[in-house]
Prior knowledge:
Radius of gyration of chain A: 19 Å
Largest sheet of chain A: 8 strands, mixed
Largest interface: A-B, 24 and 25 residues
Helix content of chain A: 40-55%
Distance between the termini of chain A: 52 Å
Oligomer: homodimer
Strand content of chain A: 15-25%
Strand order of the largest sheet of chain A: 3-2-1-4-5-8-9-10
Order of helices and strands of chain A: EHEHEHEHEEEHEHEHEHHH
Shape of chain A: globular
Number of helices of chain A: 10
Amino acid sequence: MTQKKVSIIGSGSWGSALASVLSYNGYRVAIWSRNRQVIDDINFNNKNSKYLPNIKLGKNVYALSDLSEVLANSSLVLIVVPSHVMREIAKEVANYIPENTLLVHATKGFEVTEKNDGNTNVLRMSEVIEQELPSTFKSKVTVLSGPSHAEEVALRLPTTIVLASSSNEIAAKIQKFFSNDYFRVYTNEDVIGVELGGSLKNIIALAAGISDGLKFGDNTKAALVTRGLAEITRMGLKILRTSRCRGLVCYLF
Amino acid sequence: MTQKKVSIIGSGSWGSALASVLSYNGYRVAIWSRNRQVIDDINFNNKNSKYLPNIKLGKNVYALSDLSEVLANSSLVLIVVPSHVMREIAKEVANYIPENTLLVHATKGFEVTEKNDGNTNVLRMSEVIEQELPSTFKSKVTVLSGPSHAEEVALRLPTTIVLASSSNEIAAKIQKFFSNDYFRVYTNEDVIGVELGGSLKNIIALAAGISDGLKFGDNTKAALVTRGLAEITRMGLKILRTSRCRGLVCYLF
């Protein structure tokens, strides 16, 4: 039986680490990159030395610069590119993506644009992708996020991660691609919460780094994390309430 | 004007660190201890070398073995003794505690006893205290907890902490005793949540230590913390539902 093919759009450290997971799980992995040096390194050395040094990516991982070829016959498409190029790349992906493939992104951050009236418009990554992709992907964009460094995933250290989709059925299908004995994938339905949490916690992480630089201790860092969690939760609930208020939760907070 | 007096029942590292905070804030602090060596060290050297080495406790901190003297004319009583002696000591405190004083505890853990039918009975520390103290203290026992090491508090590194009381008014009064420029006290009404969280997170901390011992990385520790938080939340909601279900929250979870 031919192994299923997964396409990874983006060849940074996180995309490469996830390629190593999917390869370990027995899939054929096609990585799309614009960087010729990275492509050659992956195809000839089975490594991405620039972004993930000293790690073999595993069997059946190859890289290409031709997006149509990368996406052809793909069972699962994983987009993991920097947030500021997401819209541009999603537009290109839209031209070649198979109609019924599964789609997941693993990009942190927001698209921030200025509106005509001078106000700022902020979109989550799944919103940007859904705007650019065919309407058949509406509400089907799943997000992969979680507390993990790419290097440790590539080294197969025990890691958990979350996969959020408004559809339990889609989440369960994608979960099967990624799960193995060192990579445990939880699913939930909270796409907004996962996209916000994954990005906003990096602000707290910056503050924690500053706290270390100032020679403060564990107490100060714990204060930042504790209050950060409270702030992020508050922000998530506010956005939930103003964007897609559903059910009782809107009346409670 | 005479400074207000605070009584600290217990002379371990956390009690001593909190004594240093209260001294810094201008209170007279009477520490109760059964350990003659600790009492002498506090009174003659202004230190508790056994539990908090190399730290001066500050002005107006003294220690006594006579509980009635420690508690006399106290504006605030802080109990911070090991959980397994809480009931015994609360019984003694009950004999001497001024009727209208404020009462706060900072002890982690539970009282676990076996019932006649062989089942286990588990009580939170504020429940144990309320059972032993005069009925005027019913629902007035406040808990102080939070992410902090005693040594860092004594070194005046920035620290946040939480004070939980079913009465906002009582919480606000106690908050004033402890707050200063390096020690920030948040208040909330969730006594059960704070008592459970402060104890249960130590189970996760043990697992995190084991993970380090096994040479796992940040991902594994982050997995423990993330899933630990989910489990602790679930347990808290379960206990809330079964013990004192109030309002809408009971129907939601």
